[in-house]
Every structure is written in C-alpha cells, then in structure tokens.
Amino acid sequence: MSIANPVAAHFEAPAASPRPAFSLLRRFIAGIADAISVANQRRAHREIGRFVARNGGLLTDDVERQIGNRFGQG
Questions:
Q1: Which domain of life is it from (predicted)?
Q2: Is the pTM of this model over 0.70?
C-alpha cells in the first residue's frame, strides 16, 4: 500500500501549458501575408508580360536587361 507523498507531488513537473491564444491570430496573419505576397507576384508577372508585349513580344537580351533594370533582379 502506497501513501501519497505531498512533498513529491510538489516537485513533479507542471502540466504542459496550453498553446497561447494568439497562435491562431499569428497563423491568420501569416496567411494574409502569404496571400499578399502571391498577389504581388502575380501583378509583377502581368506587368512584365505587358512590358514584353509592348516591346515586340519577343524576349530578347535587350528586353530581358530592361526588365531587370525596371522590375529588379529579385
């Protein structure tokens, strides 16, 4: 027969704390940031497509260089 030891209970590891409530908010904000990033990338691709179309529709070395200068190398 075992007797409960109140001192041992005091030194037991605490129960795992629940995840913070703002975890859901962080995921929501990250989702919004991802959506904005995708939208910006699509917009940049459309602008580059229009630029190529305005410059003859062919992706020449000169047009490619202008795209890099105008829209960034990133």
A1: Bacteria
A2: no
Buried b vs exposed e over 9-23: b needs ≥16 C-beta within 10 Å?
eeeeeeeeeeeeeee
Domain with 61 in it: 20-71
What is the tens place of the pLDDT at every residue in 43-64? 999 999 999 999 999 999 999 9
Rounded CA separation 72/66 (Å): 9
Separation in Å, CA 69 to CA 15, 35, 42, 64: 57, 26, 19, 9
Whether residue 9 is contained in a domain is answered as no
Q: In the chain, how many domains are there?
A: 1
Q: Is residue 11 part of a domain?
A: no
In a domain, 44, yes or no: yes
